[in-house]
Amino acid sequence: MSHSFRCRVYYEDTDLAGIVYYANYLKFIERARTEWVRELGIDQARLKAEQGVVFAVRRLEADYLAPARFDDVLTVATAPERLTPARIVLRQAVSRDGTPLFDARVTLVALTVAGAPTRLPAELARRLG
């Protein structure tokens, strides 16, 4: 299931040159992933409290293609690429009016609250499968 999330670039997101500071793209895609999981019907706080499962980024590959600037409205597209019993690989792309700005492949892993690897919750795997 792919997902689309819109966000605006605020002054605090930019650097001295007036363009989005590179690390802020990671915040934009994190927010989009949170909304994607929420739209799948998964309550992450309840998942942690009831099953002791949390998600962490294991790997991230990113390409910065063009700058975003103050007051731009960005669209973050999130789409699952691969699913294993303990990992989700996502493609996330940030664009402005259809112009690609940032592209990332993100590998998420399921962990216990103690930090040990665990399987993806069955309900999430079912919804993604």
Number of domains: 1
- Rg is 15 Å
How many β-strand runs?
5
Silhouette? elongated
Biggest sheet strand order reads 1-3-4-5-2
Any idea what the CATH superfamily is called?
A: Hotdog Thioesterase
List keywords for this structure.
five-stranded antiparallel β-sheet, Thioestr_dom, hydrolase, Thiol Ester Dehydrase, Chain A, YbgC/YbaW, alpha+beta, fatty acyl-CoA hydrolase activity, 129 residues
Describe the structure.
The protein is α+β, with helices and mostly antiparallel strands. The protein has a single domain, classed as Hotdog Thioesterase (Thiol Ester Dehydrase, Chain A). It is 24% helix and 41% strand. It is built from three helices and five strands. A five-stranded antiparallel beta sheet has the order 1-3-4-5-2. GO terms for molecular function: fatty acyl-CoA hydrolase activity. Keywords: Hydrolase. This is Putative thioesterase. Belongs to the 4-hydroxybenzoyl-CoA thioesterase family.
Give the structure's gist in a few sentences:
The protein is an alpha+beta fold. Helix content is 24%, strand content 41%.
Please render the helix and strand layout as text.
Layout: E1 3-8, H1 24-39, H2 44-51, E2 53-64, E3 73-83, E4 87-96, E5 99-112, H3 122-128
